[in-house]
Amino acid sequence: MATFVPRQVFPTLDSLPRSYFLGHHKAGLDKMKTMLSHIDLIIECRDYRIPLSSRNPLFEENLAGRERLIVYTKQDLGSHGRQRDKTRERLIQEFQQPSAVLFSDYKDKSSVRKVLEFARAHTASANSLTGSRMMIVGMPNVGKSSLLNALRRVGVHKGKVAHTGAQPGVTRKIGTTVKIIEGEENGEGVYLMDTPGVFIPYVPDAEAMLKLALCGSVKDTIIAPTTLADYLLFHLNLYDPSTYGEYAPPTNDIVQLLDMLARKIGRLQKGGSPDLEASALWMIQRWRNGHLGRFMLDEVTYETLEVQRKGDEGIRLSLSQGRKMVKELRKQKSRLKFLNTQ
Question: Which of 102, 161, 319, 336 is the most exposed place for a label (fewest CB within 10 A)?
């Protein structure tokens, strides 16, 4: 029997959409800017599995002037607590200075308490009698609302206030402030404001778009589920092909895997033919929930972090430049569609 050899490179897909910057993203960002004078601390959430791809420079450019705490959420979905995980985390902390960095799993009280302790210390250093107002920001579906609910649950023992969901866009407007720490003596305590996720105006790197989509930062209808499942299969094979061993033998063929998967889990259409798209969505969701391997999608090294520190001009496009590029891509697609119909 031939030894299985996984793909080392995923094929470039130039036809992928490169934007998910919606109207409520811009409206939310504009509103955040107007409220900045009342905010003491920005808590920026990024997805632990894609610490580079889930960074949005718009926050740094538009919400400058306030101390920032960066929280890498969903740590449980990308870390096994091994030495290499800890080394990677220390490297990220080093490169994000002077901003403080924490790694969090909203289901783990100890990691939630670390965020609360930072917020409490920050408030104490300000020595304010009126308490503290903080704002939580991040890309769509990186876990902002889940973290807010966890901070409230652990901090003041109150129930869920922010709605959460598997798809991005659950939070579409800036919400009211929510108390996460009780005040001491005459103090008012610490309040946190939930905000809508804000996407990058334009993503110049097609693979970064795939990573963001796979982690749920764009709706599953934006990129074909079979394409996302194929990208997931690419990473699963590099991580450990036995992860999907109960459904199929190691393969680089996504159609073969989805066919066998559909028959195993009963995702069949009329007549008994496999429903490949439904199987792809099932596979993606299983990975997002940590049931099909827990690993990083971004490669975090000194070199990749140095590239980000220097700043990628493609990522740092202004809103107007981003809109122009998106419009041009749409025009090109329309022209191609027209030519194909002739």
Answer: 336
Greatest extent of the chain over all pairs of C-alpha atoms, in Å: 76
Distance CA 309, CA 131 (A): 34
Parallel, antiparallel, or unpaired: how do β-strands 190-193 and 177-181 relate?
antiparallel
Scanning the structure block, which residue is given the tokens 């990024």?
A: 46
- What are the tokens at 51? 């610490």
Answer whether residue 314 shows pLDDT above 70: no
Instruction: Identify whether the C-beta of residue 185 lies closer than 8 Å to the C-beta of residue 234.
Output: no
Cα–Cα dist 55/49, whole Å: 12
Residue 192 has φ and ψ, to the nearest 5°, of -125, 135
Query: How far is the C-alpha of 287 from the C-alpha of 154, rounded, in Å?
Result: 27
Q: Are 256 and 276 in contact (CB under 8 A)?
A: no
| Mean pLDDT confidence for 224-234 | 97
* Cα–Cα distance, 27 to 174 (Å, whole number): 10
| Residue 125 pLDDT grade (very low, low, confident, very high; cuts 50, 70, 90) | confident
- At 179 the three-state DSSP class reads strand
Give the chain's length.
342
CA distances from 251 to 75, 231, 235 (A): 28, 13, 12
Query: Could you count the other beta carbons within 10 Å of the beta carbon of residue 124?
Result: 12
**How does pLDDT run across 243-263, given as a tens digit for each residue?**
999 999 999 999 999 999 999
